[in-house]
Design a protein that fits this description.
elongated; DUF2294 domain-containing protein; MpsC
């Protein structure tokens, strides 16, 4: 059951990214670790962003634009509520970054309680 929720969480991340960025990551996986949901995304950059990365200035612009946009997306209360409803917990913090050279992004959602209860 946990894997199903992690998959649903990944699909929600993809849906949100697609809605706000115009495309979602090609690969995404989410793992719940205590009160964290860790989403790793590969294949995030658009062809235009890849073209822009031909210079150091372009790389900096793409990185700043991507990280700034993601922060703005997750500051939207209606977006946060979708994740909270799925997880059944409140979001305390969200950390996000992208390695544009490797085209891998990570977002860590920190919730107010553990997302998986340990089975005994």
């Amino acid at each position: 059951m946990t894997k199903n929720i992690e998959h649903q969480f990944s699909m929600l991340v993809r849906e949100i990214r697609k809605e706000f960025v115009g495309n979602g990551p090609k690969e995404i996986s989410t793992r719940f670790v205590g009160s964290w949901a860790v989403s790793e995304m590969k294949g995030n950059l658009t062809n235009i962003e890849k073209f822009m990365m031909g210079s150091k200035e372009g790389e900096k612009m793409v990185h700043e634009a991507r990280t700034g946009l993601v922060k703005k997306i997750y500051s939207d209360l209606s977006v946060r509520r979708k994740f909270e409803d799925l997880a059944g917990a409140a979001i305390l913090r969200i950390f996000s970054d992208i390695d544009i050279e490797a085209d891998i992004a990570m977002t860590i959602f920190v919730f107010d309680r553990p997302l998986i209860s340990k089975e005994k």
